[in-house]
Structures are given as structure tokens and as C-alpha cells.
Amino acid sequence: MSVEPDITVPAAPAAAGSPPTGTAVRVGFLRRFRRQRAAVAALAILVLITLAAVLAPWWTLYDPAGGSLSDALSGPSGGHWLGTDDLGRDVFTRMMYGARLSLGAAVIAVGVAMAIGLPLGLIAGYAGGLVDSAIMRVNDALMSFPPLILAISIVGFLGAGLTNAMIAIGVIYAPRFMRVVRGAAMAVREETYVEAARMMGAPAHRIVRRHVLPNILSPLLVEISLSLGFAIIAEASLSFIGLGVQPPSASLGSMLGEAFRHLRDAPVYAIGPGVAIMIIVLSLNVLGDGLRDSLGRRAMR
Amino acid sequence: MLRLLARRLLMSVPILVIVTFVVFFLLEIAPGDPARLAAGGQAASAADVAEARHRLGLDEPLWTRYWHFIEGLFTGDLGQSIFSGQPVLSAIAERAPVSLSLMAGALIVAMLIALPAGIIAATRPGGIADRVVMLISAGGVAMPNFLIGLLLVLVFALNLQIFPATGYVPFEQSPARWFQSLVLPSVALGVAAAAEIARFLRASMLDVLDQDYIRTARAKGIGVRGVVGKHAMKNAFAPVLTVLGLQVRILLGGTVVIEQIFNLPGLGSLTVKAVFDRDYPIIQGVAISAALVVVVANILVDVAYGYLNPKLRAA
Amino acid sequence: MGLSKPAAGPLLEIDRLSVDIRGEHGVARVVDEVSFAVGPRETVALVGESGSGKSVTSMSVLGLLPPRITRTRGSVRFEGRELLGLRSGELDRVRGDDIAMIFQEPMTSLNPAFTIGEQIAEQVRCHRGVSRKAARDRAVEVLDLVGVPSAAERLKAYPHEFSGGMRQRVMMAMALSCEPKLLIADEPTTALDVTIQALVLSELRALQERFGMSVLFITHDLGVVAEIADRVVVMYGGHLVETGRTAEVFAAPQHPYTEALLRSVPQGDTTGSRLWSIPGAIPTPEAMPDGCRFHPRCPHAKPGVCDADEPPLEPIGDGRSSRCVRREELRLSGIGGDAGGTGALAAEPLGGSVLPGGDRK
């Protein structure tokens, strides 16, 4: 986690009480986080998996797209740790590439969700009033769709494919970010030092950047972690159905889809990608919970 | 209670309006020309496309079309399938019972697992049972439902052959086989919900068991079952209801995947087929009905909340 | 009932009761070898500041302490039957039936999710096995008894629709619904304001006479004790420090802590004047001082005497006992009818308002 260079002690007027600076908030946060052993372990696992997946082209032994049909659906062996798929491709290698794709897709999807949710949440929370209610009604409406059905509908109109799937997942998780950011922004807005800054005539964008953003960083981190987990599952679901990543590329979800079609002949095929998804999502959840518990003062909910 | 219901109904109106707009607007983001698609694709002549455009009302301005769309909704006219020509409403009505039974089944499975698990975990926090429950539920939350479905098919349908792997038998045809055909899908869909609900119930129960009125109940000598099952439960269940409301959304979405795996002819498989066919009216119809189900479920949750928490009734 | 014990023997007999509670800082003994008895139709007040162990003592009678973190030793006998170590199913037959309990917080002690009628009737049904209708009738009866107006209509009301004083009456109605032989009242009036306090107390007294039950009354307020109790048991830091008949204890306390508690009782018209209170607080079980547990706050503490050995609880005749080594040298002042005029505090040993030796923190 890189620390932003921008965060310095704000020049708040003396009367405004002690403003919690971004750095101060973060030091306590990190200290509390380090005490959460399960969360730290989850973070380590995630880093490890991410490295293994990102670096897959440089260390896996097989071509993820090539194989010989004579090898098709062979069980695990010394040569193929998790066996081969219906086209004779090495499942372990494909799994690493699949994880790479799944992780990448989840990150981009969450990025999309943040790009939509963050500004809208900030505006709603900071402006309040009519703007807030209008944005929140749209938010409620989006939250009324079953997430997967909305995602499928969006993909249905945009067309199947990984990019569209990522956009769709981003849209369905944007309300979560909107809510978190709005709540935090509303809380910060009421603080005396922000009120003071406002009365001193500081422009809104500076107050938001100096005071609001640093304070929503921690809850945002929690939301990112949890949403990544959801996004992985959502992408896997879409790809499982065949609406996400298109062959010959594979994500963990589309691999499971293939495995499902060969469940009778080669049940082992499902183990690798299945376990990989579980570990990744579980780690993200544990990490998210740990982060939330480290939040302390500005607890969510 | 009635006032609570009325207020909630009123609050849903703007949400539903936005929902319809979102669904209507989906058509605008679609690449390609729906009129051409309706006219028969690339091969269609310009005249055919223009005719289709006029027939579908696509030559009118956005707001007019939205107005027609809303009018249609109120008269039950959700358009027709581009492919089969079947009215969207009847296609949905045909498929809805399957998805709704699946969802109900999943909810039942979830409650059957979550209630005892959450209560046992909460009554002995830190004990072995508690740790096992927490561990399994952490895994259950992280496990995508299609993975569970896959496992169930593998174990119970392919290996043990206790349940049919796929397919659906309508209730009217044979209630027993209808039930059988829904067991595995319901479990696959319900496990994640069970995990989530169990975790919430545990937390909420722990909170409630610490309250003074629980001590009062214990001092009354009404027994553990009365204290936990009645006094604690009614209070602890209120926050769980909120989760239950959220779960309805997720379960409804989950039916799509589960129906694919178990080859059930529900709304989910209808949607997936519609997506591959680019059958836009069907997709729109399903999206709106799904949102409607969620809105109704949320109202029910709020009313139930009022029942559990008498203080809210007056408000 | 006089000083000679009634032939039937005590109703409740607590014998060398000790309670250990596991907390953040390890196991702490919050009640240490406490023994006292409550006779039939007798009202005993268990008195002390918060942290004295009085509430824990009362809760252990009905086994209401969380079992995972508490260990109870000694004996609690009710009508000769040992209650400690009973399985919770067996205990449930005693709870609410022979022994009922009301608690300090009327605002939170009733379940917000059930009507008060249901909460009372449930207990009657459970112990009496009567029909719903009969249980409901009984609920109306007891609500009437404790002075809840238009009881029949109020059955369907929820706790949040009642005031604090009314809720405490509901609690009382609930406790009385099965005509218990012993009522344990854990600071039932503390959370109420003074006028309602007096009402609830007089109600309680009337009911006690009517039902002929015994009452174990837990309080930190000796003013309340004077109105209600036959005998007083004073606790400090988990110890029983003094016990005796109310009038005698009030007139001539035999322990400096009792004296200090008496001093903090408001006398007559106290408007405008500030109440005196004992400086400092009861030490936590982990930080219990050597010697007499009260000595750091005691105005009569003598170095080398009071901080050396823990004084034993000594019987001093007439059913009284005290845990003070300097008891015989001190002449502690009390209040009350026969000894000290019309409720004025004799100020002899306490002197000024600032206590020597008391750690003011």
C-alpha cells in the first residue's frame, strides 16, 4: 500500500479542535491491523497467489493454449500436476493463467465500481439535501436488482465478453462504494475542523481532498477488499455460464464451466480452479474483516 | 402496522420508477440496431428494417418510447420475444414457478442450517462447536454456488445416484419427483446464504444474550429453550431479517447459475438463452420482474421487522 | 421473629459462599466466604457500594452468573435443599416459583419484543401448568395488585409504552405471579426517581406482608434499608464486614464502613446541601490491600494494625458480627430513633469533612 505524498497536517484554525490527520489515522490503523494474524496471513497468501499468477508466463512449463489431443483428460501425474483438459492442455498452467485473468478482471471491475461510486458518493454525502436523495434513490433502484441478473442483463445488451462482463460487474457493485463513501463523507462533514475549514472559505474540492478523502481511505480499503471477493465470484459466474471470458482464453470460472461439462469423465479437472477460487475469495474476505476490525474509531455500519 | 406497510409501499414507488428507467435505458446501450435484428439481421432490406423500426416504435423519441414502455408495464404488456414471438409476460409466467420454488427451497435449506448453527455457536462462544461453525461458514461464504452445485452433482447424482443430476419435474406431474429434482439445486443455492445468515445470527444472538431481559427470563425459570428459543430469538432475529432481505437478491441472481447446472427451465435459463439470442424484451422483462420480487421481499422484511420490534410499529 | 431463630430454621441459608470470576486479568474472587441467612417472613438487606460483591452474591443464589466464567463454592440452601450445583433444569423449577427476582434496571429488564401480559403469563403457565386464559387472568390480578392502573387493558402493551416506575411494578407483578417464598430484589429502586422510589418501596412492603414472603433486598442506600429491612448484611470488597438487626446496626455500627455508609444517607431536608460520600472507591479484586480491605479508606485506620492481618469476622452476640480489629476501642456513631436524637449525625469520630487517611483520588 503506497502512502500518498499529498497528506500533510492541514492548516486548521486553532479553534477547530484537533483534526485527525490522514497519517495519524493510518498509523493506528496499521498497528491494529498487524495484530490481526488471520488477516495478515490472508494478505500474504493473496500476495503470493497474485505473484504466481502475474508471473505465470515466466515459470509455468506448458503453453496454456497448446496441447495434444492424445493427452486429453489425463488425470494428475508427475508431468501434469492437475492433469489435462479436454484438449490436452495442462490444467495447472491454465489455472495460473486463469487466476491471472480472474484477478485482473476483478481489479478492473472494482476499479469501474469505484470510478462510478466514489464521486457520486462524495457528492451525495458532501452536498446532502436534494442531490443526496436523488442519488440515493438511483442507488436504491440499482440495489433492487439481483446483482447477477443485472450483470447478465447488461452483458446481454452489450454482448458477451470479458470487457463487458467487467463493466457489468463494476456497475452492480458501484452502489456499495457509493454507500460507504457517502456515509464517511457525511460523518466527516459534521466534524468541527471541516466546518471550520468551510467557514474559512476553503473551496469544496480542497476540503474534500484534504479532509474527506484521507478519512474515508480506511473504510474504502475494507470495501475494496470485500468487493474484490464478490467480483471474483461474479466474474466466475458469468464466465461459467459462458457470458464472460471467451475461449481460448480462460478464467477460473470458465475453466469450471469446462470442467462441469466433463464432470462425468474427469471429475478431478474441477478441483484446481475450484480450490483456487475458494482460497482467493476466502483470503479477501478474511482480509476485509481484519481491515474492518482495525478501523477502530470510525467503524463501519 | 398498516401505516408501516403503507409508508413502505409509498417509498417503493420512486425506486420502481427508476428501475423501469434503468431497464428501459439498457436498450440504448446495446450496440447494433435492434430494428435490424428484429427484421432478420444483416440480410434484411432497408425497407424491412424501417418497417420493423416503426413496428417496434423505435422511430419515436426516447421519452415517448419510455412512456409507452411504462404504459405497457401497467397493462401487463412487456413486449414479445424477438425470436418466438411469445409475449414476454407469458414466457416469464411459465418459468417463474421453477425459479421461485428453487428460491424458496434455498431459503428453507439456509434457515434449516443457519438457525441451529447460529444458535449453537452463540450459546457457547469460543467452544468447539462455535469454532467449527465459524470455520465452515467462512468457507461457505467464499464458495461460489456453482462450485457447490458441481460438488453435489458429482457426489449425490453421479456417484451415489440418490438424486437426479439434472432436469425438472413440474409439481402437477409428480410432487415427489418435483421435490427430488429441487433438493440438490436448493442445497447448492442455499449453502452460501446459510453461512451468511449463521454468522449474522451468531453475532446478533451473542449481543442479545448479554441483555438484561435475558437475565430476567432466566430468573423466571422458563428453561433454556424458552430463554434462547423465545426471548433471545425474537430479538436476535430482527437484524437477521435484514440479511435475509439481502439474501433474496443474491439468491434470485444465483438461480441463473444453478438453473444452468441442473438444467432447470426457470427464469435464469430463460435469461441466459435470451442473452445468447439477443432477445432484448425477454431480458428486460426478467430484469424488471426480478427487481419487483426484490422490492416486494424488502417490504415483507420491513413488515416482519415491525412484528419483531414493536417499537417500530408505532413509528 | 426475634433474635432467637424461628424453630423452622432459615428459609435461605448462605454458607461460606465464594465466587471466582474469570476476567481480563485472570481469576478474581469477587465474593469471599460470605455466610448469612434469611428467615421466613424476614427482610434482609444486603448493603454495600458497587463492587462490594452484593449483586454477585444475590445472583449466585439463582445461578444467574455466566457459568463459563464463574466458579461458585460453598453452599446456598433453600428450605434445607442445596441449590449450588443443581442442573439448570432443576434450578428452573425453583427460579420464578419459590424464589423470584427483580432487577435494578427496569428500563432494560423487560423483553422489548413481548407484551407484558405475555411475559407475566408465561411464567405462570410454566410453573403452574395452567391454561392460557387462567394465566392471563392471573397476570391481570398481579398487575392490579402492584398498582398498575387498568391492568386488563395494559396486558397487550409493550414495555416501551410504560414509564420506569411502571415497568418496575410490572417486574414486581411478574415476580409475585407465582407467590414466591423468597423475593430477591437487586437494587429495585436505584434507577427510579425519589418519589417513585418511595412508592415502589411502600408497595413492596405491603405486598410482602400480604404474601408473607421473605425478601433479600440488595442496595447501596442505607436510607432505603431503614424503611424496609429487619436485618442488615454489610459487604465490602467481597467480604461480609458487619451484620445485625437494622435498628441496632443503625444506632451503633460496629464497623467503620457501616458508619461511613450511614454518614452518606441523606438526613431530613437535604435540598441545597451536598451529600457526603465515602472518598475513593472499592479496590478491584486484583488490587485488594493487605490487612483490612477497608483500611485505605478508613478514617480510623491505624498503621501496623489495620494493614497487617486480615481481620476475622467475629460474632459479638445478639446475632451480630463485625470484621474490625479496632471495634472495641472505637465508638462509632450511628443514626436512628433511640440513640442519636432526630436523625442528626453524631460527628464525634469523623470530625471534619476531610477524612484523614482516605485516599482522595
From TrEMBL, chain A:
CDD domains hit by this protein: TM_PBP2
Transmembrane portions of the chain: 38-59, 103-127, 148-173, 266-287
Gene Ontology biological-process annotations: transmembrane transport
InterPro entries in UniProt: BP-dependent_transpt_permease (IPR050366), MetI-like (IPR000515), MetI-like_sf (IPR035906), OppC_N (IPR025966)
Keyword match Secreted: no
The keyword Plastid appears for this protein: no
Topology of this chain in the membrane: Multi-pass membrane protein
Gene Ontology cellular-component annotations: plasma membrane
Residues of the ABC transmembrane type-1 domain: 99-288
Cellular localisation: Cell membrane
Keywords: Cell membrane, Membrane, Transmembrane, Transmembrane helix, Transport
Family classification: Belongs to the binding-protein-dependent transport system permease family.
PANTHER family: OLIGOPEPTIDE TRANSPORT SYSTEM PERMEASE PROTEIN APPC, PEPTIDE ABC TRANSPORTER PERMEASE PROTEIN
Name of the protein in its database record: ABC transporter permease
TrEMBL record, chain B:
Cell location: Cell membrane
Chief subcellular location: membrane
Organism: Actinomadura darangshiensis
Keywords (A to Z) from UniProt: Cell membrane, Membrane, Transmembrane, Transmembrane helix, Transport
Record carries keyword Transmembrane: yes
InterPro entries on file: BPD_transp_1_N (IPR045621), MetI-like (IPR000515), MetI-like_sf (IPR035906)
Protein name listed in UniProt: ABC transporter permease
Its membrane topology: Multi-pass membrane protein
From TrEMBL, chain C:
InterPro entries: AAA+_ATPase, ABC_Ni/Peptide_Import, ABC_transporter-like_ATP-bd, ABC_transporter-like_CS, Oligopep_ABC_C, P-loop_NTPase
Chain residue ranges for the region called Disordered: 333-361
Biased composition regions of type Gly residues, renumbered to the chain: 334-343
PROSITE patterns with a match to the protein in the record: ABC_TRANSPORTER_1, ABC_TRANSPORTER_2
Stretch forming the signal peptide: none
Entries under Pfam families matching the protein: ABC_tran, oligo_HPY
GO biological process, one term: peptide transport
Main location: membrane
Source organism of this protein record: Actinomadura darangshiensis
Family according to the record: Belongs to the ABC transporter superfamily.
Topology term for the membrane: Peripheral membrane protein
Keyword check for NADP: no
Molecular functions per Gene Ontology: ATP binding; ATP hydrolysis activity
Record has tRNA processing as a keyword: no
Subcellular location per the Swiss-Prot or TrEMBL entry: Cell membrane
GO cellular component, one term: plasma membrane
Sorted UniProt keywords: ATP-binding, Cell membrane, Membrane, Nucleotide-binding, Transport
Annotated protein name in UniProt: ABC transporter ATP-binding protein
Domain ABC transporter: 12-262
